[in-house]
Amino acid sequence: MAEKEDKKEKEDHDFKKEYEKVQKKYSLPSFEELDTYFEIEDASDGKHPLRTVRKKIEEKLEHLAMQLNAILQPETKVIDLEECKMFTDEEKDRMLDLFKKLMIFARQANLISLDPSEKKETEFIQTVYEAWIKKGGVQEQMISITKKLVESWKAETKGYEPMGYLG
Question: What is the mean pLDDT of residues 28-32?
Fold first, then answer.
């Protein structure tokens, strides 16, 4: 058991060390910054740090896109139907723009996985990171949407109201 933990710790250290090498070479965000937003610390592929970071970013983007998708095009699950009602049409229009941005990034990541190169990986990481942190960027928009969801779920409800066809 201790051997497995030592091996995992070494792999984690190798991954961080290898990422820091390419980070300096390409002026990428720090390991800590990326870990804060995209939870890369648990990755352990020290041989391919850029690929690993891209995959972690892609996972996050796809997760967020699926959250928005459920609001924009709800299925017949109570969660989707309730969350769909929490937003105005204007908010949904802005949400659709964000959804498109997330999907463009996710599909770019797919494309890079089919034809990888260090240059493409670094450009992708930098582009998504910048879109994430800028004022009014992806993170800020997702925080706003998620806060509204939390507050809406806390609000009093009148009981179950079945919804008709939404198509």
Answer: 97
Instruction: Please answer whether residues 36 and 65 qualify as being in contact, where contact means their C-beta atoms are separated by less than 8 angstroms.
Output: no
Strand, helix or coil for residue 16: helix
Residue 26: closest CA among 56, 9, 10, 50: 50
Domain ranges, ordered by start, for the chain: 2-153
Closest CA to 57 of 128, 108, 130: 128
pTM: 0.84
Kindly give the residue spans of alpha helices, DSSP state H, lying in 39-137: 49-72, 78-85, 89-114, 118-133
Taking the C-alpha atoms of residue 78 and residue 15, their distance in angstroms, rounded to an integer, is: 41
Residues 68, 98: contact at Cβ < 8 Å? yes
Give whole-number Cα distances, 128 to 34, 41, 51, 132, 156, in Å: 11, 18, 14, 6, 38
Whether 12 shows a pLDDT value over 70: the answer reads no
